[in-house]
Amino acid sequence: MTVMDPQTPLETTAERREREKRERYYAASQWTLIWWRFRRHRAAMAGAAILLTMAFLGLFAEFFAPYGPTERNRDYVSGPPQVPMFCDQNGCSLRPFVHGTRTVRDPVTLRATAEPDPETRRHVAFFVPGEPAMLLGAIPISTRLFGLEDGAQLHLWGTDTLGRDVFSRTLYATRTSLSIGVLGVLISFVLALVIGGVAGYFGGLIDSAIQRVTEVVRVIPIIPLYMGLAAAMPKEWSSTQVYFAMTLILGLFGWPTLARRIRSQLLSIRGEDYVLAAQLAGARPARIIGSHMLPSFTSFIIVDLVISFPYMILSETALSFVGLGLRPPAVSWGVMLQQAQSVQVIEQAPWLFIPAGFVVLAVLAFTIVGDGLRDAADPYGQAG
Amino acid sequence: MVRFLAERSFGMIVTLFMVSVMVFFIMELPPGDFAERYAFRKFSGTGVTITPADIAAIRAELGLDQPAVVRYFDWISGIVLRGDFGQAYAFDTSVNNVIGQKVWLTLGLLFATLIITYLISVPIGIYAAVRRGGAADYGLTLFSYLGLALPNFLLALVLLYFANLWFGASVGGLFSAEYAEAPWSAAKLWDLMKHMWLPALVLGWSAMAYQIQTVRATMSDEIGKLNVTAARARGVPETRLLLKYPARLALNPVVSTIGFDVNRIFSELPIVAAVLGLTELGDLLLKSFLDLDMNVAGAILLMLTVVIVVMNFVSDLLLAWLDPRIRLGG
Q1: pLDDT score for B273
Q2: pLDDT (0 to 100) of residue A1
Q3: What is the predicted pLDDT for the residue at A46?
C-alpha cells in the first residue's frame, strides 16, 4: 500500500518551488552554501573575475602579448602609447589603425626620436604571425592575438627606455608576480600548518617556546628583514635561481599570522570528544590534526591564505623596485617599476607607470575577494 | 602591577636576545666576509696586489677567524656594554659615526608619523561610526581599501608628481638645500617640520587606513550597548556621551596596536625613504644592504627592532593604565 503525501496534490507551483529551494538549501554541503553566499557578493565576484582574467592573460602571455619580454624595437625607444583609432584627419576607416612612425632628429639635441607620421596608416590585424614561442612551456606557437599588418610593430602602452613593449612586458610580469605570490603563500601555508599545528595540538611548553619564536619573527620589520635575506643572494645567481630564492624568502617569514590562527583554533577544539576518540583509537597526531581537526576550519584557512596574497605581492614589488628582488632579464611588476623611480621619468614617460595600476588592481581584488570569502564562510552570516 | 611590569620586562629581554641572534644571523648570511669586502673596497684599483694571506691578516686582526658564537658575543657585548656597533667598511669609519644623528631624525619622523596617523584616524573613525551608512562612511571604506592596496612608495611617487605639477618645487628630502649641512638651529628645525609632513603622511598611510577601520568597528559595537542607551535616557548630552563611553573604549585597540603600527612604519621606511630622498636610517639601511655593509645594516635593523619592542612595551603599559581589567589580571 502506498501512502500518498496529502500535501503534494494541493501544492501550487510557487509553493513547490519554494519547497524545493528550501530542500536544496537544507541538503547543500558547506561548500555549496559558501559558494551561494559568495556569489551574491557583487564586489567580490568582480574581484574574482579580475584575478582570473589576470591569471589567464599571464598564463598565456605568449599568445596575448605581441612581443617577447626582452624584444627591443630600436626604432621606437621611449615611444608613447599607440592607441588604435578609426578616424583621423584623412577620413575614417572601418578597420582600426595606428599612424606609422618616422624618425626625426631633434633640432637641439640631434638625437633620433620616433614621431608619429599622420600620413601613413597601419591597420590592426588579428592572429598575426610572430616569433615562435612555447605556450605553457610545451606547446609551440607562432601566432599572436593581435599586431599590425606588414610586420610593423604596435605598442599599445608605449615602449620603455630600451624600446621594449610595455604591454607585452606587463603581461609577462603579471605571470611572474602572481606566481611568486602563489608559491610564497604555499610555502608559508605548509610552514604555518606544521608550526601552528604542533603548537596548538601539544600546547604546554612546546607551545610557549613556539610562541616566543613567532613573537621574534613578528617583531622584526618585515621588509627590512626580507631585504637582508635578499641582499645575501650571490650576485652570480641566474634569474631563475633568484626567482626561487625570492619565493622561499617570502614564504619563510609569511607564516606567523596563519600559524597563530591554526594554533588558536586547534587549542579550542583540542578537548573535544571526537579528538579523544581518535586518540584512543590510536591515531597519530599528524592524522588527528590533518583529517579530524583541520576540516572544521578549512574555510577560515582559505580566507587567511587569500588575504595573505597581497602582502606577498607588495613585498616582491617593493624589493624588486629597490633592486633587491628579482633581477633582469626576469620581469615582474616591481622590476618594471624600477624604471619609474623618479618624478622626471613619470613626467616624461608616464606610461612606464602602468604596471603600478596592475599592482593596485591585484591587491585590491585579492582584498575584496578575501573579505567576500570571509563573509561567505561565516556560518552565522546571513543565509543565502 | 609590579608583577605585571616584571613579567613584561622579562619577556622583552628574552625577545630582544632572540632578535639579536636573528640579526647576527642575517649579518653573517652574504657570501664572503667583512675582511674580503674591506680589502676589495680599500685596495681595488690602487694597483696593490692582495693575497689570501693579506685577507687572512685582516681577518685575524679583526677577530673574524673566531667561531660564530665568539663573534656574536663580541658583537653584542660591544653594543650592550660600550654602545659600540663595530666598523662600517664602506665608509672606513665606525658604525656609530655613520649612524650618528640619523637615529634622532628617524625617531622624530616616527613620532611625527604616529601623531599624524592617530590625529587623523581616531576622529574620522569615530565620525564614520556615528554616521554609519552615510556617504562619508562609504567614502572612508573605499579609502581604507586604497590604503591597503596602494603601496606607500607608489603613493610617494604620485604625491611627488602632483607636488611638482602644482608647486613646481621639489618637496622631497627632509631639509631644504641651504639647511642640509647647517648646524642645528631653530630655523633648521622649522625647515625640518615643513618637510616632515609629506613623508609622515606617506608612511602613516596604511596604518591610518587600518586604524580608521578598527576605530569604526569598535565604536559601532559600543554605540549599541545598553550603558550608552541608559546614559542617553538620563539626558547626557550626545557629544559628551559619545566621548565618555564608546570613544574611550574605541581607543583600546588603537593603543594596543601601537607597536604594530611602528613595525609597519619601519617596514616601509627604507623604500619610502629611497623614493622621497629622506636621509635617515631607512635610506642608510637600504644602501648598506646594497653595498653589503652588514655591520651598518645589522646595527640599524637591531635599532629599529628595539624601538618596536620598546613601543610594544609602552603600548602594554598604556593599555594597563587605560583599562583596569588588564592591569588587575582579569
Answers
A1: 86
A2: 47
A3: 92
| pLDDT surpassing 80 at residue B231 | yes
CA angle B183, B187, B191 (to 5 degrees): 100
Cα four-point dihedral sign A360, A365, A368, A370: negative
| pLDDT above 70 coverage of chain A, percent | 94
Helical spans, DSSP H, in A281-326: 285-287, 298-321
**ipTM of predicted assembly, 2 dp:** 0.85
- Distance from C-alpha of A120 to C-alpha of A240, rounded to nearest angstrom: 43
Please, which contacts does A119-122 make with residues 24 or more away whose CB atoms are closer than 8 Å? A119/A90, A121/A88, A121/A90, A121/A93, A121/A97, A122/A97, A122/A98, A122/A148, A122/A149, A122/A150, A122/A152, A122/A154
Cβ–Cβ < 8 Å for A122, A152: yes
Which H or E run contains B99? helix B95-99
The per-residue pLDDT for B83 is 79
Contacts of A239 (CB under 8 A, 6+ apart): A326, A327, A328, A329, A330
Q: Which domains does chain B have, with CATH numbers?
A: 2-96 (no CATH), 99-293 (1.10.3720.10)
Q: How far apart are CA B111 and CA A119, in angstroms?
A: 60
Contact A221 B154 (CB under 8 A): no
Q: Considering only residues 342 to 381 of chain A, which have any Cβ-Cβ distance to chain B shorter than 8 Å?
A: 343, 346-347, 353, 356, 359-360, 363-364, 367-368
Residue of chain A whose Cα is closest to the Cα of B144: A364
Q: Which of B26, B31, B145 sits opposite A234 (nearest CB)?
A: B31
CB contact under 8 A, A321 and B263: no
